[in-house]
């Protein structure tokens, strides 16, 4: 994978610009994270009511990523533009609603900050290239999927499937890998976790993961090629095992409560995109295979 680390007169300006873009997009991702599961729930309820031929008693008001306008969940006061500046507004308002002083979750500025920093690093690493544009879209999707899965143990098809097809599309131009590796990466990504799912179910009678995990790994395979899949699977499994065991030992979490696997796949996938080649080379040297 060819990198385009930037230097020169306008490098700092470019990185700062992309970082600010990331902060703004991170603010919008908070909306995506909050509303997409509710939109899906509304769609499922409508479909169930139609199938059962019963009245849908939920509100008929428009609910999507744009409507209704953002407002305080407690007092319903609208959030003005000056109250919605990434991170700055949270600090200015001291983490509370301007109207009713209800606390605002610290997670909102954290998502904004993390998205901004990730985007800035991508700009630094790939410079003025098509890889930067593609990696930004992948990053935004992975941030959204991570937080939605944490909240709802759900990886929505309306994010994972377009992400998969977009990965194949950009690699038809060889942006991160060749088209053949992309297609086989998508097939292998889905097939590996699908096989693990059914093997675990046959042996235990339980479902160890959701179908959304299959689709997310397929999407990551489409973006980075089948060659990246072993690294992604190993890293996500190790991190998931460590965090899961720590949660049981330290927090006393019930071991029967399912833990979402999507965030670990997303984190491992982003790391593989950025540092995958370096990690692989270091491992081969350490193992004496190179």
Characteristics:
66% helix, mainly alpha, 290 residues
Counted by DSSP, the helix tally is 9
Low-confidence regions: none
**Straight-line distance between termini:** 19 Å
Q: Would you tell me the overall average pLDDT? A: 88
* Broad shape: globular
Fraction in beta strands: under 5%
What is the count of β-strands? 0
Order of helices and strands: HHHHHHHHH
Radius of gyration (CA) equals 21 Å
Helix content: 55-70%
What kind of assembly state do the chains in view correspond to?
single chain
* Global structural class: mainly alpha
Q: Outline the biggest β-sheet.
A: none
What would your notes on this structure say?
The protein has 290 residues and is an all-alpha fold. Helices cover 66% and strands 0% of the residues. The chain is built from 9 helices and no strands. It has helices at residues 11-52, 88-92, 107-126, 130-152, 157-171, 179-204, 211-224, 229-250, 262-286. Helix 4 (130-152) packs across helix 9 (262-286) and helix 8 packs across helix 9 (262-286). The longest helix is centred in the N-terminal third of the chain and has 42 residues, at 11-52. It is globular, with a radius of gyration of 21 Å. It starts with 10 loop residues before the first helix and ends with a helix. The model has no long low-confidence stretch (mean pLDDT 88).
